[in-house]
Design brief:
This protein has about 240 residues and is α/β, with parallel strands linked by helices. The chain is built from eight helices and 14 strands.
Length: about 240
């Protein structure tokens, strides 16, 4: 495996010995690991870091594994989750899979089985977002109106009232889509960055501003009045077409 692209596996397990042995097997298989024994510590790590997959026990000191899976789903984090538990109850396995786990492995198991299951899930999830343009847009999204223009994500084009059509970049498309989806609401800068670049992207406000300028220049070139698309100084942006009518 290419060492420059080793997947990072988060192990959330309160059995210290089991976690360490599991980490050793994964390291030998060409993976990085990070171990936590408490749900809250794993949640704090996930808020600031990207991981490729979570190995998650059911019974943990501060909460159960289901709560961490719920946190992952609520935060729109697309990291896959494999439950690893000594609880072989069919009811528990079914519950875990129904609420969104990608697999469920019952202890004990061999290292080779675990690694094979991880590889299988990573292969499946690698194609999960093939049609995404940005975290908040896909090629299958319906066209929408923005200041009298028609924004077509599937064709990555924007058609203007003057009859002309231009190609539009992914980030500009994501910005327009997020403004449209939240019209009438002030969107903080960090919220915009998370929506368009992803929750773990290391993107500065200056980079966002450069894309905002590109969007405004594109609209102005075709005579579009952008008074409804405003900067809220010190906070972020708002698209409020009702206020300009």
């Amino acid at each position: 495996m290419d060492t420059t692209s080793k997947p990072l596996i988060l192990i959330v397990e309160d059995d210290e010995d089991f976690a360490k042995v599991t980490a050793e097997h994964l390291h030998e298989a060409g993976m990085h690991t990070q171990i936590f024994s408490h749900v809250w510590r794993a949640e704090e790590f996930l808020k600031e870091n990207f991981v490729n997959l979570i190995l998650l026990d059911i019974n943990l000191p501060d909460a159960d594994g289901f709560s961490l899976l719920d946190f992952v789903k609520q935060s729109k984090n697309q990291v896959p989750v494999i439950f690893v538990s000594g609880n072989g109850s069919e009811r528990i396995r079914v519950r875990g899979l129904e609420i969104g786990a990608d697999d469920y492995i019952t202890k004990p198991f061999s290292a080779s089985e675990l690694i094979a299951r991880i590889h299988a899930v990573l292969r499946r999830t690698d194609t999960r977002h093939d049609f995404d343009l940005t975290p908040n847009t896909t090629v299958s999204d319906k066209p929408f109106d923005f200041l009298g223009c028609t924004v077509n994500g599937g064709r990555m084009e924007i058609s203007f009232p003057d009859g002309k059509t231009e190609s539009i970049g992914r980030k500009e498309l994501g910005i327009l889509a997020h403004l449209f989806e939240n019209k009438g609401l002030v969107i903080p800068r960090q919220n915009m960055i998370h929506a368009v670049w992803g929750p773990h992207a290391n993107v500065k406000s200056r980079s966002l501003d450069q894309y905002i300028v590109k969007v405004r220049d594109l609209l102005k070139r075709h005579g579009c009045e952008d008074a409804a698309f405003r900067t809220v100084h010190g906070v972020g942006f708002i698209y409020d077409p009702e206020s300009s009518n």
